[in-house]
Amino acid sequence: MNNELALQTLDALRRVLGTNPQQLHEPSFEGNEWVYLKDCLDSGYVSSVGKYVDKFEKDLATYTGANYAVAVVNGTAALHIALKLSDVSQDDEVLIPALTFVATANAVTYCVAVPHFVDIEEKTLGIDANKLRQYLADITEQKSGQCVNKKTGRIIRALVPMHTFGHPSDLEGLISVCQEFNLNMVEDAAEAIGSYYKGQHVGTFGLFGTLSFNGNKTITTGGGGAILTNNEILAKKAKHLTTTAKISHKWEFRHDDIGFNYRMPNINAALGCAQLELLDSKLFSKRNLFSLYSDVFDQFSGIKLFQEPENCKSNYWLQTLILEEHESENLQKILESTNNSQIMTRPSWVLLNELKPFLDYPSMDLVVAKSLSSRIINIPSSSNLGNI
Amino acid sequence: MNNELALQTLDALRRVLGTNPQQLHEPSFEGNEWVYLKDCLDSGYVSSVGKYVDKFEKDLATYTGANYAVAVVNGTAALHIALKLSDVSQDDEVLIPALTFVATANAVTYCVAVPHFVDIEEKTLGIDANKLRQYLADITEQKSGQCVNKKTGRIIRALVPMHTFGHPSDLEGLISVCQEFNLNMVEDAAEAIGSYYKGQHVGTFGLFGTLSFNGNKTITTGGGGAILTNNEILAKKAKHLTTTAKISHKWEFRHDDIGFNYRMPNINAALGCAQLELLDSKLFSKRNLFSLYSDVFDQFSGIKLFQEPENCKSNYWLQTLILEEHESENLQKILESTNNSQIMTRPSWVLLNELKPFLDYPSMDLVVAKSLSSRIINIPSSSNLGNI
After folding, report:
1. What is the largest CA-CA distance in chain B?
2. Which CATH superfamily is domain B2-24+277-351+374-386 in?
3. Can you tell me the distance from the alpha carbon of B228 to that of B225, in angstroms, rounded to the nearest whole number?
4. Which of B210, B1, B238 has its CA nearest to residue B103?
5. ipTM of model
6. Yes or no, beta carbons of A47 and B223 under 8 Å apart
7. Tens-digit pLDDT profile for residues A267-293
8. How far apart are CA B73 and CA A271, in angstroms?
9. CATH 3.40.50.150: does it fit domain B33-276?
10. pTM of the entire structure?
11. I want to staple A259 with a disulfide (CB 3.0 to 4.6 A). Which of A91, A244, A351, B304 is the partner?
12. B216 interaction partners in chain A (CB closer than 8 Å)
């Protein structure tokens, strides 16, 4: 019976994807990528200064509706600086979901701060606001307007919702928790360009939002990321810190802070400008792919295709199957049968609190995250698969 | 009389450079850059996996003679990981020259360690080994094979020679100091690809060496850097830590350490492969430019053109004028007259110990660095200026 579900899943995927090998997510370049790259080489501007960096930042701000965007070298760097400018410093705690890519936790540690893992909810795959509220009511107290973990004595400084596979978290619920407990909110929207919560682009609700343009994302700059914010002063600080904190001068090298070399090179930004022009058509294709998958998986029992949460528009970055709990034992079989047949699938990340470097960090009860991590399967999701 | 030296300098530069505006250092792309970039777009491999990353690493190892090279996102990241893998950890001190780009000190702080500034010598522009030996004999004691700063109580873990403007530091002298005082040596060779000390490429003498391929360097990847090492285990660790410390697995996401997203994207490596093919011809042109500058500046009194140290071959990354001490008051006038005439020149970096973020860090007497920082002028140095 176990093998049966694995075979049915493989068959369903093949009905949508055909018989060719399929990667999980591949980039595609159908626009001005080559024109803009050539322009970089012709002009000699490939590096840290150049018109494509400025253009990409403006285009990103326009697209997302954020007042400001700062292009950086990747999503991890974006999160690091966003946390730093949210006053996260040594020995602070930062609340992050247990189910996320490791970069979310790593960025916290770069601030010499402490990741504190919280549970998620099945309806958004993001942090469960109600459960978090109850937890914080139990374990924290307010001292001089700061949220203090009574158990560790440390300040809990920030909350980082991550919009899993592009699906918006419960932003209203989480904003309300942040207000109630005096937490700064930084949205890890690495996976979520083109996703909206009640009509507003994700990454624009918190003090900061961060994006990733890694090669496996909806649009790519090779490697890259961006910091979004609506606050002019914070945007200027983000630009300053990510460009070695150099004070502008025609020839003098003077730096007024410990800065970072997190600039996005012009050549990567050029790729980003071209990719951003294609984003809406990619989103259309990805939504169509969801619909194609729906047609076959709607008839399944034991597996459902994850659909965007209510009042949200998801970019459907990674299409997601979720096994019912009584089928979770079939996860490995499905992964094996699909990958062995050259249809790449993968489970969710191993929960971060189960990874060696994070074993000793604080966490709440993670029963939902634990359950979901044994039931999630991402299936091929490249935008060109949904082309009509 | 002050104005006279400034005018003479401007006139001398124009005799070599002609009347067109000149940047300090511009990249040039005369090789396979287009071909390789297009191949990335055509193949879809622009990001963290791809044949150009592997090829660039192999080509760099071959070129420098290092056993291993790990391509990363920039020179700062390279230095961060090299220091980390040299056991630099919280509250350790790291000896670095006061006269260097700020990244050298920043990378130390990323390890939550303490930069300790040391003096340089006029004949190499790098750390003065004899002065350092005397200083360490005075202020340190050996405890269980570790070098302890008697004043601060902290362990001095490593020494970072920086090969200034591409000129090799006194490596034999510095290696001897490292051996005597139990220090790990990490060479900051960000500026020095193509430079040799007694016939061996710099960056291959220490436990690690680091390179930069920023747009202003001799060859560029847009943004990029590399870690060199002769130690297989350390090379594997460097690759692991710079790629999020993920354990290799077909679908599982498990990380065994706090890693970093420091991968060089394939598209940047593609540029690097093409640029590396051109390196020898660029070095030839840069050496020729030195010769052209020599012809005019040899007749100057009060200013000398800096020449590669004895037994060394320099890449002449940035051509360097050094004012005699009695002419140091003319530095600003020369900078103004040249930059106002659109011939870009610049002084050395402001000494790091004089920057706000580093004011409270330890330093030895820095009399030579201080003097040189008021007498150095870098002049236009692009490789295409020396084409014959």
Report:
1. 72
2. Aspartate Aminotransferase, domain 1 (3.90.1150.10)
3. 10
4. B210
5. 0.95
6. yes
7. 999 999 999 999 999 999 999 999 999
8. 17
9. no
10. 0.96
11. A244
12. 47
